[in-house]
């Protein structure tokens, strides 16, 4: 399985959206250099309030560009970085990857997928009604989260738009992604 990096984003402030850049640097065990969510322990405000000593399993957020086309059909306009992701991808079914998948980004960076993003009300603050587009239920009533995946940095490096993404699946048995 292969994909492509469409855009990269970071913000040094705790803001919902992140501006896109020509490149970002991933730091082993920390996240995106210069991003407010980088660190070994949790940085998301709600998680810090609960327990600031938790490990940061949300160092790098990836979203598939295909989600933007899906929500566009429902009348929403979303561009890279606008949902707070660090890496926008194309050509990979991120949501179907098992926990522990390694994503090789560009020449040297490697992130390990830790779980699904659990979107919150801030998505509706960005565009009213968008949360229902990225969180729903399947025909059996199970919650379906589509707002991307979270990961930790295993090998640092620079990531740029146009970089290839190579998928390395973990050993079986595979574990389905759960919210982190």
Description of the structure:
This is MOSC domain-containing protein. The model has no long low-confidence stretch (mean pLDDT 95). The chain contains four helices and 13 strands. Strand 3 and strand 4 form a beta hairpin. It starts with a strand and ends in a 12-residue tail after the last strand. By secondary structure, it is mainly beta. The longest helix has 7 residues. The strands form three sheets. A seven-stranded mixed β-barrel has the order 1-6-5-11-8-7-13. A three-stranded antiparallel sheet has the order 4-3-12, with no helix packed on it. It has a single domain, classed as PK beta-barrel domain-like (M1 Pyruvate Kinase, Domain 3), CATH 2.40.33.
Mean pLDDT, as a whole number?
95
Segments where pLDDT lies below 50 for 5+ residues? none
Straight-line distance between termini: 24 Å
Radius of gyration: 15 Å
Q: How many strands?
A: 13
Structural class: mainly beta
The order of strands across the largest sheet is: 1-6-5-11-8-7-13
CATH structural class: Mainly Beta
CATH superfamily: PK beta-barrel domain-like
- Supply the CATH architecture: Beta Barrel
Helix content: 10-25%
Number of helices: 4
Largest sheet report: 7 strands, mixed, barrel
CATH topology: M1 Pyruvate Kinase, Domain 3
Estimate nothing, just give the exact number of structural domains: 1
**Strand percentage:** 25-35%
Spell the H/E element sequence.
Answer: EEEEHEHEEEHHEEEEE
Question: Which of globular, elongated, flat, extended, rod-shaped describes the shape?
Answer: globular
Pfam family, one: MOSC
Domain MOSC: 18-168
Protein name: MOSC domain-containing protein
InterPro entries: MoCF_Sase_C (IPR005302), MOSC_domain (IPR052716), Pyrv_Knase-like_insert_dom_sf (IPR011037)
């Amino acid at each position: 399985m292969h994909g492509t990096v469409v855009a990269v984003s970071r913000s040094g402030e705790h803001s919902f959206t992140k501006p896109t850049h020509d490149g970002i640097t991933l730091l082993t065990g920390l996240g995106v250099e210069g991003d407010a969510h980088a660190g070994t322990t949790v940085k998301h405000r709600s998680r810090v309030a609960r327990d600031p000593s938790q490990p940061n399993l949300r160092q790098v957020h990836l979203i598939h560009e295909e989600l933007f086309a899906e929500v566009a059909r429902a009348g929403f306009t979303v561009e890279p970085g606008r949902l707070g992701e660090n890496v926008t991808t194309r050509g990979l079914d991120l949501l179907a990857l098992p926990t522990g998948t390694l994503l090789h980004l560009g020449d040297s960076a490697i992130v390990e997928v830790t779980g699904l993003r659990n979107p919150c009300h801030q998505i509706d603050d960005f565009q009213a009604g968008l949360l229902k587009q990225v969180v729903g239920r399947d025909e059996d009533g199970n919650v379906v989260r589509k707002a991307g995946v979270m990961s930790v940095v295993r090998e640092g490096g620079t990531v740029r738009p146009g970089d290839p993404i190579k998928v390395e699946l973990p050993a079986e048995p595979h574990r389905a992604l759960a919210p982190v």
